[in-house]
Amino acid sequence: MSDMTIIAEDDLIASVADALQYISFYHPMDYIRALGAAYEVEQGPAARDAIAQILTNSRMCAEGHRPICQDTGIVNVFVKWGQDCRLGSSRSLQEVVDEGVRRAYNDPDNKLRASILVDPAFTRRNTRDNTPCVLSVEMVPGNTVSIDVAAKGGGSENKSKFKMMNPSDSIVDWVIEQIPLMGAGWCPPGMLGIGIGGTAEHCMKLAKLSLMEPIDMAQLKARGPQTDIEKLRIEIYDAVNAQGVGAQGLGGLSTVLDVKIMDWPCHAAGKPVAMIPNCAATRHAHFTLDGSGPAYLEAPNLAEYPQVDWQPDAAARRVDLDALTPEEVASWSAGDRVLLTGKMLTGRDAAHKRIKDMLDRGETLPVDFAGRAIYYVGPVDPVMGEVVGPAGPTTATRMDKFTDMMLGLGLLVMIGKAERGQGAVAEIARHKVAYLMATGGAAYLVSRAITGARVVAFEDLGMEAIYEFEVRDMPVTVAVDAHGNNVHTLAPAQWKRRIAEEHLLEGA
């Protein structure tokens, strides 16, 4: 047996911390190249604008070393541990890797948002350092340790799907059935990771692992498929994009940039299939340790980024939130581009639940929502003199069950990410208010529009506290207008028809 390679505890900690910081502000270049190509061919104006925001945000984050998205994710770590290696630590591998996560998320130069809660079914207390991670370990031959790290945002993770299929069931048909159910809360354009086979839990792991692979759909299509799995990847890719969902669900040609598939032998009685999307942040990186010291990732060449510089649409409506009236809100139409200036409140899951509990007890609320706008957001803590850290929108459907309650308090405008459920759309129309959509995956760009921020209620909730933001020219799109017109229903249906009639995806 060869001499054992000692992997020093500090080397593993430093490498994990560096990789997590790296993926917080650098997109993988394969994603940037694929998104740049999608931008060039996109014909949907709203989707093209959203892609421009994502690309511009990406460059800003790469230059400023700040998070691409305010949801800096739950950390997934996949370890292939060489059997000739030994961990030089008295602590468990989980504890050592978690120390790397802790250091990355509490880095004072680029503090990342802590989103992990203990006691998930009951008190849901924030661990404050984003630990623990989800760790997977495989023992393999060799004297090196190979590690993939990923930070998985809640919006995309929540759209994970699984089915224990019958052996004769169609995988393609099942995937296409899921696309409208997924909506846009997973922040397309991204990737779909698909696992086939194994057992239920292994199938889900395969889907997640597949998302670590580089985007190569354009190259695959150019050379042609050589295996049944490659044929299936292309078939699903084309079928999903033909649905016309588009960037942020606004209708367009690019819903997914790639489809990845991993499989494993399974029992003759079934065919487990899992699907997990990666969002527009698509954060993952790989490094190897050989005992010689920590691994540090090389910065990408920013000269290779697409030359896209998003600017507010000159035709966008400018709205003064401090003088907002029901009449003005009623004049907006679904699809309108709007630039918001003035003061807005924030609030998301925990704040809405606490408001409901207070109202149920007959208590006075600490904030008056009448005539106001609320932004569904949980921002990153500020650093280096920032007013607020990256502050992109969170998925709005999670607030749907509170919509009637909040509109009853006099809210005029809600701002979030992706679509609303039909019940919420009906309440919006009944109250004659509006739901506006900000671009998911452009958190740093959005935060640059925030000129003031202060906590006004529920400070103990951390990033879920209620803030008052002051904004200047914050870019949003009217997603549901006061008449109930819903861009997330209308636009994809229109683009699905156009794609079918005009064969717009041929050669893509």
Distance between the termini: 52 Å
Number of strands: 19
Enumerate the strands of the largest sheet in spatial order, edge to edge or round the barrel. 14-15-16-17-19
Question: pLDDT average, as an integer?
Answer: 96
Beta percentage is 15-25%
The helix content is: 25-40%
Number of helices: 15
Q: Main beta sheet: strand number and arrangement? A: 5 strands, mixed, barrel
Indicate how many domains the architecture comprises.
2
Rg on CA atoms, Å: 23 Å
* Overall geometric form: globular
- Which stretches of 5+ consecutive residues score pLDDT under 50? none
Pairing-aware structural class of the strands and helices?
Answer: alpha/beta
Helices and strands, with pairings:
Elements: E1 5-8, H1 9-25, H2 29-41, H3 45-64, E2 74-82, E3 85-88, H4 93-105, E4 117-118, E5 125-126, E6 134-140, E7 145-152, H5 154-157, E8 161-165, H6 171-182, E9 190-197, H7 200-210, H8 217-223, H9 228-241, E10 256-264, E11 271-278, E12 283-289, E13 317-320, H10 326-330, E14 337-346, H11 349-360, E15 373-375, H12 403-408, E16 413-416, H13 422-431, E17 434-437, H14 443-447, E18 450-457, E19 466-480, H15 487-502
Parallel strand pairs: 1-3, 2-6, 9-10, 13-14, 14-15, 15-16, 16-17
Antiparallel strand pairs: 2-7, 4-5, 7-12, 8-11, 9-11, 14-19, 17-19, 18-19
Helix pairs in contact: 1-4, 2-3, 6-9
